[in-house]
Amino acid sequence: MKQVTTNTSSKQDSCQRGWRLLYILTAFHRCSDVMKPFLLRFLQDACDSPGMPYQGIAKACQENLKRTFQYGGRVQYPNSMEIKAILAGRSSKRQLFLLPGGIERHLKIKTCSVALDVIEELCLEMGLQRLEALDEYAVFLVTHRGQNVRPLNKREYILDIATEAEPVDGNYSLWFRRVVWSLALKLDNELYVTMHYNQ
User: Fold this and answer.
1) What is the Cα–Cα distance from 26 to 60, expressed in whole angstroms?
2) What's the CA gap between 49 and 92, in Å, rounded?
3) Hey, how many other C-beta atoms are within 10 angstroms of the C-beta on 164?
4) What is the pLDDT of residues 93-112, one digit of tens each?
C-alpha cells in the first residue's frame, strides 16, 4: 500500500508493479482482521478517486480480496505462464471446457474464478436461471486420456486446477456435465437440448 501511495520512485514502473503485486497478494492471501478494514478502505478510495490512473487494477484487487475471503484464496502459486501474463497486465485466460457431444466452450477465466463461476456461466448460456439448477451440474478434471476423472468442488479455483494438472498431464481437459436429474427437462434452448441429448 505504501508503494502505490504518492510513489516518488525514479523507476517509472514502480507504482504499476506495486499494484500488480497487490493484485497477486489479494488473490492468494487473506489479510488479518485488524488490517482488513484499512485495506478495504484503501482499495475503495482508489476505486472512487476520479482520474486515478490505477482504478481498474484497484477494482480487480478489491474483487480478488472479496473472493479470497469468500473462497479461502488460491492454493497453488501461479505458474510461470500466469506470472508472465500478470506482469504484462493480463488478468484472465481463455480456458476450454468440453460439453457432451464434443461441444467446446472457451470461457474467460480470471485469477479468482472458481468452478461455480463456470457452472453459472454455462447454465446461463443454456437459459437456466434458477439457483436449484446450479446444483445439478459439475465441472470435472480429466487426465490421462479419460483414465482419471475428478469432480471439482464448486469453491476450487480453476487456475489452481490448471496449475496442478499441467505437470501431471499436459493434455488435461475440463468437462462440464449434468450430474443430478431432478429438475424437468426443457426444450427451448439449443445448447441445452444438444448437451442433454449427447449426455
Assistant:
1) 9
2) 25
3) 17
4) 899 999 999 999 999 999 99
